[in-house]
Design brief:
By secondary structure, the chain is of the alpha/beta class. It folds into two domains: 124 residues, Rossmann fold (3-Layer(aba) Sandwich), CATH 3.40.50; 102 residues, Beta Barrel (OB fold (Dihydrolipoamide Acetyltransferase, E2P)), CATH 2.40.50.1020. The strands form four sheets. It has a five-stranded parallel β-sheet with strand order 2-1-3-4-5, with helices on both faces. A hairpin with a 6-residue loop joins β9 and β10. The longest helix is centred in the middle third of the chain and has 19 residues. The radius of gyration is 20 Å and the shape is elongated. The chain starts with 5 loop residues before the first strand and ends with a helix.
Amino acid sequence: MSNDKITCAIVDDEPMALNLVESYVEKTPFLELKQKCSSAIEAMEIINNEPVDLLFLDIQMPDLTGIEFSKMLPKNTRVIFTTAFDHYALEGFKVEAIDYLLKPFDYAEFLTAANKANSWFELKRGTKKHNISEEKDFLFVKSEYKQLRIKLADVLYFEGLKDYIKIWLKDNPKAILTLMSLKSLEEELPNSQFMRVHRSFIVALKNIDVIERSQIIINKQRITVSEQYKSKFLEYINNNSLH
């Protein structure tokens, strides 16, 4: 990455969409546009010769779809999908896209996705110590076509399902559902406040009510601490216990 900017390319067979994303890239300080292409076939040749860090990639294109093309990209190239069809979200998730923008999207939505990419690359470069700044007190999550601002202080725990995450909040009997992996979420959370204790659960440490043998109780919900995460959790307990 030159000067720590994220190099990127745009691939879209609609000229208006191509130009719109280009205008968004140009007003985003940490992005550097290298190429724009009107088909995946054209992009394939260009990107193989000059790889980029990030691709803004339309899904529904003739000859080769964005999903198919994403599986052929160099290992270090990440993808943000852009599409007018919401039923592609799950496929985008399965190929580990950083985000998924549903057309028509505005600059605020674009910037949220670009910031996710920026966080990912900063973690990769090691300019962030494992986690985002400990001062961070909220996250934006996409749910039902909206970006919801979630206060971290209100989170009880995150529950991972097969392709989604349930976010359980204080004073909210219904969970917020978002398309994301627990692993990628874990990278975004401050590790002084949250800990993964099970393949399917990340808990808010300050909201633990009771610890009973290998179980945590938060808001009457019992969560088992699995063997894989037990030693780290016990270390936390020991460091915060009266001896």
